[in-house]
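*** Backbone structure tokens ***
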Amino acid sequence: EHIINDIESSGINAEYGGDGMFEVSASELARGVFSAELGFELPSGYLAPDNSVVKVKCVLPVEMKNAAFKLIDVDDNRILTNSDLSGGAVEGKADLSTRLIFDFTLTDGSGEVTLHQVFVRFTNTKTKQNVFFIAQADLKKKYTIDLNFRSAAAKSFGSVGGEYSVDLIVGDATLPQAMVVDVATINLEVPDSKEPAADVSKQAKPEITHLFKEPEKRPPQAISTVFTILVLLPAVILLIVWVKLGANVSNLQLSLPAIGFHGGLLAIIASYVNFFLGVNMFTTVKYLAGVAIVTFLCGQRLLSSIAAAKKAK
């Protein structure tokens, strides 16, 4: 950003065009954004604005110069196409062994310049697919596009061959309008060329269904029977030992909490047995949730009544 204090010495001419508009022309300014300080000579009774500094943007068109468009066969180290584009757009063929080199500079009359947006666009004339490559400028302000179709065919072009129009697009805030230059027409030959895939973003997605793991094969019935007997055998031995020792069951109450507590324990054991026999885990947990609550409440009342009975004695 530059500050202009003396309009006349800066080569700026401003003429009033009516309706508060000024037409400004500059003969010695380079492209860029400037701050211009304005002076006012007003009749008596008129006040000048508080802020007399305005932003002035100097825009200049650019031209493509020193162009060099080459198509090179990398395998044979042979130049297929070489043009300075002085006669307009060129035509060429390219395949996976082709390398494209495009050099050029941009000038605005005062010299070579670098701008913010400079890129080359490839457009498939059939599918209208666009592929963009950014042009990089070196220290001498020369732009270069170096493209190897062997690596770019699948990555950038999606293995879609055919005829492509090549355009140079230049954009910047200091340009009157974007510049588009028709550079070339290239027939790209790709061995595994394919049509672009259809857009499925708006189509219905396949339904996702969750499948549980298939149950493993059960053992023979004889083995299952023996295992069941071995599991129940400790309970049978326990009952036999109780009978032999003369277990004291005098404290066993026949109240509702006692029946609910012991019935709940039996229901929990029955749920485990059902799970073992084939009921899935989710159904078992659903049954246990209700039985466990009843068993807990009845057990708490039963223990309270037993403690109260002992305290009364």
User: Anything to note?
Assistant: The two ends are 102 Å apart (CA to CA).
